[in-house]
Specification:
CATH class of the largest domain: Alpha Beta
Structural class: alpha/beta
Strand content: 25-35%
Largest sheet: 7 strands, mixed
Bound molecules: zinc ion
Oligomer: single chain
Radius of gyration: 20 Å
Distance between the termini: 40 Å
């Protein structure tokens, strides 16, 4: 008989632990051996000894943490298979951000997929999510409520460009998470025909360089500080935290924009003083979550973090065994 997954994958204080392989996935505290799904700070933390991830994720970790990215870094390509302590490990694209991977685990005839964070729609900055048939699918639930249905991203970008045309005297200040959202919004703007320079807050430059180095062309980017001319009519990208602070006062009558799945909640946009909320998310929405469960055909789902309850219920209604792991230390503010 195949071993039930709970007997070999456990929740520990450090996070998800794969016992026969003696490694953690996205541990929240320093460990001896870590397999990392992607570079977001709540999944990729500094201070581990051995770190296994895609080359892109390792580059992101190095850019953020320097030597603290890990003592020994091992890059694995999508589709490449290796064995850690008897557990077969393979990485598959998760479609979330550059380098993001699902971790496909096989041990004694059972296949478990830890998806990290993921989305299903096209993203011009990373390869698309590839469903992996499995016995247990471990999923996030950032937007695990039926109210979260993300519109097409091209439609949201068109709203931004329409606002820029309507307000030629103002700078559009777009709040974007530094890893993933920033580069995706840039690429979407380029695809929509915006060829002028985009202006960057200093905190966004390093990861844009990592994307460019990985072959994701972002077009002309300029630091805001170097812009001598007036930024009226310009599009400026900054971390969400910079939207309301002193930094933004240098811009001409800034119009505050935010790009996030959370912008579905009008109250949230209002609280943050966002004039133009764009619903652009790097996480699966409600429909994508449920479609994914059906695509991977897993009879069992584990929900790691986010809004678990409705999702667990919906899975159960579809005849899937589902449970909430309630992992702590994950925060999807930048969603
Ligand atoms: Zn993430
Ligand atoms: Zn996450």
């Amino acid at each position: 008989m195949m071993p039930v997954a709970e007997t070999w994958i456990r929740v520990t204080p450090q996070g998800l632990f794969v016992e026969p392989g003696d490694f953690h996935i996205d541990p929240t505290r320093p460990v001896a051996r870590a397999v990392i799904t992607h570079g977001h700070g709540d999944h990729a933390r500094p201070g581990h000894d051995d770190v296994l991830a895609t080359a892109e994720t390792l580059a992101i970790m190095r850019a953020r943490y320097g030597d603290a990215a890990g003592r020994r870094l091992q890059a694995v390509r999508y589709g490449e298979s290796l064995t850690l302590g008897g557990v077969r490990v393979r990485l598959a694209p998760a479609g979330h951000v550059l380098g993001s991977a699902q971790i496909v685990l096989e041990w004694q005839g059972t296949r478990v997929v830890v998806s990290g964070d993921y989305k299903r729609r096209r993203d011009p900055t990373c390869p698309a999510f590839e469903p992996q048939p499995c016995d247990v699918f471990v999923t996030e639930a950032t937007f695990g409520l039926p109210v979260f249905r993300h519109p097409p991203d091209a439609q949201e970008i068109a709203r931004l460009l329409a606002s820029v045309r309507r307000n030629p005297d103002r700078a559009h200040l777009v709040g974007v998470y530094a890893l993933g959202k920033c580069q995706r919004v840039i690429r979407l703007l380029r695809e929509a025909g915006w060829e002028s320079p985009l202006y960057l807050h200093g905190a966004l430059q390093t990861l844009c360089d990592v994307y460019e180095h990985a072959g994701v062309a972002l077009g002309p980017l300029q630091p805001v500080g170097a812009a001598r001319s007036d930024l009226a009519g310009a599009i400026v990208l900054a971390p969400p935290s910079a939207l309301g602070d002193r930094w933004s006062r240098r811009l001409p009558d800034p119009l505050s924009v935010a790009a996030s799945g959370w912008m579905r909640i009008k109250q949230r946009a209002k609280q943050r003083g966002v004039e133009l909320p764009l619903i652009i998310s790097d996480h699966a929405d409600w429909d994508e979550l449920l479609a994914t469960f059906s695509d991977v055909g897993a009879p069992e789902i584990w929900v790691t973090h986010g809004q678990e309850d409705a999702l667990v219920h919906a899975a159960a209604q579809a005849g899937i065994r589902a449970r909430a792991l309630r992992l702590i230390g994950f925060d999807d503010e930048g969603a």
